[in-house]
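Kindly review this protein for my students:
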Amino acid sequence: MRHFGILALRVTVGGYLAVHGAQKLFGHFDGPGLEKAGKGFEGMGLKPGKPFAALAATSELTGGVLTAVGLGFPVSPIVIASAMAVAITVHSEKGAMGQKGGYELPLTDMVAALTLAMTGPGRYSLDRILPGRLPRRLVRLTVLGATGLSAYSASRVIGHRKATAAAASAPAEPAAPAQEQPAQEQPGPDPSSEQQAEVVADPAAG
């Protein structure tokens, strides 16, 4: 039963993460596609957005597929966990619960992925069928690289959030006072027109 449980967890977590990756990369399953996903990543402070979106989507897709079939353990679930660590940072400002847009789902996925990395793929997996194992050095490098990339991405998200909050709370600069235009001199009466008026008004002038 233990191995069936691991199989069910692998297929569920890996399958859903692979779908999320395909949504971002190709627009499948009613996903946004890479262009829109890139704009969303830029809005979170991950610039340039398109390469960051492609990296996250590739991690979800490849890590999800390999986890589901039980291949490349423990690297494949570690890749998922690193992507979910960044997602937790993105959703952290909205709290822990999913109905408010919080980090409930990415936290659940990350814990499940780390659990699989520690328990192994189980009996019903390609790692048990195919000969050989991943070298320990490769596993260590993957852990270090995934941790460093996650920390860097999370710091970018937090920095962007702080900068946005500071800009929103900054007092608005007072508007510059309008400069008064110099009063224009009104033209005085025309002397020739006054003389003509006097001639018309004087009966003796006729």
